[in-house]
Amino acid sequence: MIKQFPVIQASEGVTRQVLSDSPELMVVAFTFNTGGEGALHNHPHIQSTYVESGEFVFSVDGVETKVGPGDSFVIPTQAVHGCRCVAAGRLIDTFTPRRDDFL
Predict the structure, then answer these.
(1) pTM for this structure?
(2) CA torsion sign, 48 to 89 to 33 to 14?
(3) Among 65, 83, 96, 98, which residue is least crowded by beta carbons within 10 Å?
(4) Can you tell me the distance from the alpha carbon of 21 to that of 41, in angstroms, rounded to the nearest whole number?
(5) What is the pLDDT of residues 65-103, one digit of tens each?
(6) Residue 78 pairs with which residues in a beta bridge?
(7) So where does this one cross the membrane (predicted)?
(8) Looking at residue 2, what is its pLDDT?
(9) Residue 1 domain-assigned (yes or no)
């Protein structure tokens, strides 16, 4: 059965929607307006990010990288990371295990 999850305001200029989940894995879409930010944070989950559209500057453990459509990367467990949106777009993130705080 496919569940429909609500769109949540994650921060100013950023929305979040869980696309699918299980205890072992979660897929989440983040939609950013230009200038929207994902504040620096860390968590015990391994995260993979795919840039569906837009342009972003990501900071992972103090190293900044500009990414755009088609780029993807893995953020290790406990790495301090965040991003700022340079051109409006959407990120598809996967987390293992699931981010229960997003449910």
Answers:
(1) 0.95
(2) negative
(3) 65
(4) 22
(5) 999 999 999 999 999 999 999 999 999 999 999 999 999
(6) none
(7) none
(8) 72
(9) no
As for how many domains the chain has, the answer is: 1
The amino acid at residue 20 is S
Query: Is residue 48 one of the residues assigned to a domain?
Result: yes
Instruction: Give one word for 52, left, alpha or beta, with left for phi > 0 and alpha for psi -120 to 50.
Output: alpha
Range of the domain at 20: 7-102
d(CA 83, CA 1): 33
12, part of any domain:
yes
Residues 6 or more apart whose Cβ sits within 8 Å of residue 72: 48, 49, 50, 51
Amino acid residing at 100: D
CB of 62 within 8 A of CB of 36?
no
Residue 78: inside a domain: yes
